[in-house]
Amino acid sequence: MSQLQTVLSTANLMAMIWLLLRFMTPFGWVFSIETFGGFVIVGLLLSTGAIGAFYFLVTPRSSIEPHKEIIDADAWNEAERRVVSYLLLQSGECLQSDLLEKCMFSNSVKVTRTVAKLVERGALVKFRDGMGNRLVLHADVSLSKGRRFQFGNEA
Fold first, then answer.
1. What CATH architecture is 71-147?
2. How far apart are CA 114 and CA 135, in angstroms?
């Protein structure tokens, strides 16, 4: 659809140039198709428009998005994998204060250091949210199912 729009905009531009030359110049009669000079000019405009349209139709579209590398979390330590697993269960977002209780950390210093490592690796983004921090997991973090931790009570 975008290629058709490009072709139509090219044709529109060529038509506007011809109309400007024909009706907005003092020698507009020269650009009439009844004279040889006008025939040549209109022919050049039409051929330029046809070549431009053909160029836009034939050239392949370049990919705008760069290839994203998946961050593999399997080789990380147990605390980092626990945080990633918990964030996966929470739809990729939680408060940092929730990690102390839910991920069974011994103290808040360990939570802070683990979160800092994950932010440094590019797996998390940390935002200020009131008195605490909100953690958001990047979409390109991967943790294999065999390495995920189970949280909560299972019946």
1. Orthogonal Bundle (1.10)
2. 12
